[in-house]
Design a protein that fits this description.
Blueprint lengths: L3 E5 L22 E3 L12 H22 L4 E2 L1 H12 L4 H12 L4 H14 L6 E6 L7 H11 L2 E4 L7 H12 L16 E8 L4 E2 L10 E6 L5 E9 L2 E7 L3 E7 L5 E8 L5 H7 L2 H9 L2 E11 L1 E8 L1 H9 L22 E12 L3 E2 L21 E4 L4 E7 L5 E7 L1
Helix pairs in contact: 1-8, 2-3
């Protein structure tokens, strides 16, 4: 009987520092396993960082095209979980992982870059885990690489039994501070061999907080010009990094850690949001972020909002060039386990949540934004920027440009 490699990603993005930690989630009812860890020396890779920017945008564009509406996801969480799976791949299947996630760098460099990212974001309240089916025949050296490189917990669980649902959901809830209380609704089929889970959680405060007394109603114009009154965060005569090129303008709101930041980017008023969004690529995005300049804003207004999204990513990933991994008979996961019928990826389940308020964000995400060299300078009298039309937003690492989260507000 063939076994499937079921890949599940669970992540949390919640902006809003007023909520504290809730009660602990129920303990995972599964047997925890250990193997000999196989580690690598963490090492940053500009190629991987740049590739993750394009990967994140393509993932967002594909998800939005499928949903035809607002989406929210974490390119970082997706990349970390898929990179674990890459360590079980070989041949052309491995080559596709190396291209999509690392821009063509070898697996060793991708692993080192992932280890560096995990080290950089060690304060994130997230984690990784493997859930092996007793009949999955998963190789111990694969488990050891996931433990040593990705610091993954390993559990033995019958993946087709109803008990897997509360076990995995409890683990995800615990590692996302209960922001994502469930990711699974039903057990997997009897062929499921392995589940890879990644959970991210981040809690950060704005470097410059918004005054709660200056939060008030403004109109937001949805697609089709439908207007809705909603609370906006407002700031005046403040200095933030400004983003601008010939097609869009935006702002970067740094957190108090000095490294991560929230960004919002809106196309010019006469542009159609979907067309503009689909025209963005990693290189343009990176140029826009790197060209940011500190600018005085006469007025900066951003909706105060909550958003969440969940969905399946396997078709989108296949369209991006990772098709072999999802094709039974063509996928080569010979380094993952010893089942003579082989393995292939069957599902990629993704969930995310975010809250944005006056004090900051609770999230895990990163984004690269870059302006064209021909962008115009903002007016000396100060910029007025009101995000009252559909815009792209996310959380970005200002040092590497890696997008931790990306979303659309529409």
């Amino acid at each position: 009987m063939r076994r499937t490699l079921a890949l599940s990603l669970a992540l949390s993005l919640s902006l809003g520092l007023l909520s504290g930690c809730g009660p602990a989630a129920p303990a995972v009812q599964a047997q925890e396993l250990t193997a000999q860890p196989v580690s690598v020396q963490p090492a940053g890779s500009p190629t991987v960082d740049q590739t993750l920017t394009g990967f994140g945008l393509s993932l967002l564009q594909g998800a939005r095209s499928t949903e035809n509406g607002p989406v929210l996801l974490s390119p970082l969480s997706a990349a970390l979980a898929l990179s674990m799976a890459a360590n079980g791949a070989d041949g052309n299947t491995l080559a596709q992982f190396e291209t999509i996630l690392g821009g063509g760098v070898p697996l060793e460099e991708l692993n080192a870059a992932c280890a560096q990212l995990l080290s950089d974001y060690e304060n994130l309240g997230g984690s990784s885990s493997l859930w092996t089916d007793p009949e999955g025949m998963i190789r111990e050296d694969f488990i050891g690489k996931c433990q040593g490189i990705f610091d993954a917990q390993v559990f033995s669980q019958d993946l087709s039994a109803p008990s897997v649902v509360p076990a995995v959901n409890g683990w995800v809830s615990e590692h996302t501070n209960e922001m994502i209380p469930s990711i699974l609704s039903e057990p997997f089929n009897e062929n499921a061999a392995l589940l890879l889970v990644n959970a991210l959680y981040l809690k950060n405060t704005w470097e410059t907080e918004f005054d709660p007394n200056n939060t008030y109603l403004r109109g937001f114009y949805h697609q089709g010009s439908d207007k809705e009154s909603m609370d906006f965060l407002n700031a005046g005569f403040v200095t933030f990094p400004y983003l601008q090129n010939e097609t869009a303008q935006g702002a970067v709101l740094p957190y108090d850690d000095g490294r991560l930041a929230f960004f919002a980017l809106m196309p010019e008023e006469d542009a159609e949001f979907e067309v503009w969004l689909n025209s963005l690529d990693g290189e343009t995005f990176t140029q826009l972020l790197e060209s940011r300049r500190d600018t005085e804003f006469r007025t900066l207004a951003l909706p105060k909002f909550e958003a969440e999204w969940s969905g399946q990513l396997q078709d989108i990933l296949s369209d991006l060039g990772l098709d072999l991994a999802f094709t039974w008979g063509a996928a080569d996961f010979s380094l993952l386990g010893d089942n003579p019928n082989g393995y292939f990826l069957s599902q990629v389940i993704h969930a995310a949540k975010i809250e944005v308020n006056e004090r900051g964000t609770e999230a895990a995400a990163a984004t690269v934004v870059e302006a064209d060299s021909g962008s115009g300078a903002p007016p000396e009298t100060g910029v007025t920027l009101i995000f009252d039309r559909p815009f792209l937003y996310g959380i970005v690492d200002l040092q590497t440009g890696v997008p931790l989260f990306l979303g659309t507000f529409e």
